[in-house]
Write a structure and sequence with these properties.
The structure is a homotetramer of 332-residue chains.
Chain A lengths: L2 E2 L4 E5 L6 E7 L3 E4 L2 H11 L17 E2 L8 E3 L3 E6 L14 E2 L5 H8 L15 H11 L9 E9 L6 H13 L6 E8 L13 H10 L4 E6 L10 H4 L3 E4 L2 E4 L7 E2 L2 E2 L4 E7 L9 E5 L4 E4 L9 H24 L2
Antiparallel strand pairs in A: 1-2, 2-3, 3-7, 4-6, 5-7, 8-17, 9-10, 10-16, 11-16, 12-13, 14-15, 17-18
Helix pairs in contact in A: 1-3, 1-7, 3-7, 5-7
């Protein structure tokens, strides 16, 4: 449940306000030179506190790699263990929430599942967990067989508005001023993935991407290629006609999003992920406590007004983990 | 890759025009009385040829259960093997397609993955495979712990139009007359799933549902709760305020779709799946052969003008398999 | 539980007196030509009734391959489903045993595990299940990367006596005359397995072989290399000194049995499996029924006086499945 | 490969002379009070340096638990991450061995598998890895459903001699004086495991125990119940006659070792594990370097003259992990 992947397996742990986050990346072949700066670049992209739009927590989020590498940072083929200490816990911020069920958070459902939950900061359900995923993805990205593959995500709409980066930022700022939050959509494009990657029938590449993306906190929807729009189309509109170009078979259009029958056809892969507004609001909200008594959840603390902004490097990391896993299973 | 599930595992095989489809359902506890008629009811719902809107293949699709049951149809706790013979193969229909790559089919990608593909009727990539899933789901549905859970899917739009069943059918008929096909959206609602089902962080219930639904042929998108619409919303709109009702904590609204943090909260679960138009058209289409030479794919044979219509019992079956798997892992 | 393997997965089903045995072999790459006669040769080696020393059941044990192959018997890369009908059931033979717990059989433990058990012939716990394994192994053996690997098992002792085949057979015949049964040891030698196969730390090759061999009915012990004798040795006796021979590093002796740290070193692999005497005896035995009442189990029916004799092709099949699985994961 | 278990999964990492050992125990239910002292007691039993018979490394081996627990040491149901720093590395001790292949070590096979190996102290193949297993086992042992189960191992013979503890110790001391090492056998007895635990056909309890025990460094053989001796017996000798005692069905003898058909019958489970002599000797040994040139490996450094002595708590820990895993899957 806390493991992702088959050939390249990331197993993670950590509560947001516990001692540390961490994980084990198992399945990296031996002999891969790892650039630590590339890991830091990804964790830095993910880190809150980079700008005024995201929450002001200030952990440095510098992972310590504990195994699986020579002194020269070459993989040994053995599992790479890593941890990141939680240095900026400020647990007092959340203290009064301990007995309340915050709306749209996992407090209540963890109680139903485990009989208790960590009351500080979301515990295991915190988006801080995705730091582990970004670290895993940043290592996997350095596999030789991933080098020619480009995986890039970006926010394409906020609160239903598509626009320039400036316009999108403005929508978030407006929401923040009102103590509100807002949803958004992230698109990811993968170029250079060779044809023939993926596995029928329950391991279809898009099904695995769907599972990976829906694992990200606040994700509510996934689509690839024409996605939901394809449900409004006719077959004659949706057809991707094959053509031969310099001896290589490709399609004239890419309604399919680069995947047919769960296997890549060599065209760019594209998918979109919908994120709901951050459930934490800087407003007082009506809720109940563990006994079901009505009460008020005070709006305070730090929060991200728009989780979609933070999700960009996380979407990329999970896409990297899926593709690396599949490629290692076939032709790395 | 051909196995779905952890506690209840369905492993399947079969090419559409091979000798038989079949599977093994492993993990059913002992002592469960199985009603064979309930299995037939589901396979019959899925079967082509029920009405003039779906392809005219006429297999009886009656599964033979080969193991795991007493003579009185009580589960032994051992794996249930089953097969369904492919009796109506008419392989000549597809003969000329053997060397062509049909647009939006998996012929080309299977060649890239395996070096060859079964040229008759889609082989393993055929939607006939979902017959195995419906059989597995129909057995799993009979688990005692599934008895009070209602899982119901329906088509909610065709070609972008929401309407009554009659209106939707008319859209499909129009498309069929033109030799065209059309996409659609299926919605599924699960009621009675107890709170506390699902597993963080990579086994979130909605992530597993996403993987399951995206495994269905022609699926292009998945969303749950408010789904993509949540990406256009503000946090204040999306909040599901907790309330206490007769000693039971529930939410006033259900934007979350019954799942928070990957675990059920006891509210109804709802999700939608987008299906593209069937790629097979009754028209001539430009394409290439294996050597990349341009050629024409003749439009003939049988085909479903709207895969979404067929998908309803399949969506239900996969939802059953996900929920049964999770419940067996926790509290069956 | 009914699946073996990671890259090459065999999932099986079947009760000895149910409709059929069967399985799904998933993970065979595409393009492998399968010789059906080689499968029959293995099932025939395993089949009871070949000579007067083994039980007289006379199923033909001819598997029907249902999927995953072209008409020319070339693998498609998709799962290979197979079944073998149980034609010679004679269920009356076991009828009176239905309510008794046969000593050293699994009747009682299946009741404890599943709440019921199939009373005819051992059900799922019957050694007939190993027919599925032999079929799976016979297919896997035809992988190109298995072609230069020799995997050969033989009985090396019966009832504690090592001797020629004639002497061993005589011991079994003597036991049979007395309505008794007798144990034995099977040795297996694998030659040609390349160096570098296996995975630390929980996937050590010898640990996987141990699990595979201990899965065989009646197996009580496993050892490889010097095995239990190594526990009586000093380090100076046990050392396998490295040497270089024609540019290839090898060891002068092979106390290690071809595996160091769970990974092959290119030397022959050898292991032994101990089998207990068949629990079925042709004598009256004291036992209890389901209610715990004392009763007598009448000695009659068919039985193998020495399961070790039957185990030879099964040991080989399981060794093939382990090696093929590992090689497919690394360098096939 | 570095993960053990299905319902309770231990994933580990660490090279003996890297920064840290560590692991993630995933699958512990919520609400279990953990006594840290019980973990320390087990790691202390395993720790080298306790007496003059085992290697003099002096790490304190105090694990740091990083997640999955409340401040009061109650499990949250989330994964428990832990690390143990490697503080006493003295890497210089092994420096000269970097280019040599030590006999019966995994240096050569790791090179074959991964293209390189960590030259200091065995790296991932070091027995220090078993510290992670002992920690995992010590946590699992505290599950409520494990409380009434007794799992106790002991050394029963050294160098082929069975005797009192004093006699066995003397054999090891003699070997040590000569710079030699010696093998031994560990026996483990499990009492209180309820009937009905285990899973046919590839998940048989004894097959899982075999895999677990053969994963331990230096293990060469596994047997349960009568084990290899059963291969020398007749069916009439080996039969475990059922009897009813105070309404509970049990067997008069226990040749089966508490397991029939892979499932427990409620009788004590017993098994034995054979360990080879430690491959490290305090003598000069002939070997080759990476290029195959003959050379001499100098005998120096620390070493355990008898790995079987150290294995006792490790055998117990792995037995705990197997039983806990199975019980969590059935009836915890």
């Amino acid at each position: 449940m806390n493991t992702f992947g088959r050939n390249l397996r990331l197993t993670t742990f950590g509560e947001s306000h516990g001692k540390a986050m961490g994980g084990i990346l198992d399945g990296m072949p031996g002999g891969v030179k790892i650039d630590f700066d590339l890991i830091l670049r990804e964790t830095s992209r993910r880190r809150p506190g980079q700008n005024h739009l995201v929450t002001a927590r200030n952990e440095k989020d510098i992972p310590e790699l504990l195994s699986g590498l020579t002194d020269d940072m070459v993989t040994l083929g053995t599992p790479i263990g890593f941890i990141v200490r939680n240095t900026d816990q400020r647990s007092g911020d959340y203290g009064e929430m301990a007995d309340l069920y915050r709306p749209n958070h996992a407090d209540f459902t963890y109680d139903m599942r485990y009989g208790l939950h960590e009351p500080r900061g979301g515990g295991r359900a915190s988006a801080r967990e995705t730091l582990n995923w970004v670290i895993g993805g940043a290592i996997a990205r350095q596999l030789p067989c991933m080098k020619n593959i480009s995986i890039k995500a970006k926010v394409i709409s906020i609160g239903g508005v598509s626009g320039t980066q400036e316009e999108l930022v403005e929508i978030v700022e407006e929401a923040k001023k009102r103590g509100d939050s807002v949803g958004g959509v992230v698109e990811c494009v993968l170029e250079g993935v060779p044809a023939g990657i993926g596995n029928p029938v329950f391991g279809k590449l898009h099904a695995r991407l769907a599972q990976a993306m829906m694992s990200i906190n606040a994700a509510k929807g996934f689509e690839y290629g024409d996605g939901f729009a394809a449900a409004s189309m006719y077959g004659t509109e949706h057809a991707d006609i094959f053509t031969s170009e310099g001896g290589r078979i490709r399609t004239q259009t890419n309604h399919s999003g680069g995947i047919q029958g769960g296997i890549t056809n060599g065209m760019p892969i594209n998918f979109k992920v919908a994120f709901k507004p951050t459930p934490t609001l800087l407003r007082d909200i009506e809720t109940v406590d563990k006994e079901g008594n009505s009460t008020i959840l005070k709006g305070k603390g730090r929060h991200d007004p728009c989780v979609a902004l933070r999700a960009v490097p996380i979407v990329e990391a999970m896409a990297v983990l899926v593709i690396a896993d599949e490629i290692l299973g076939v032709k790395c």
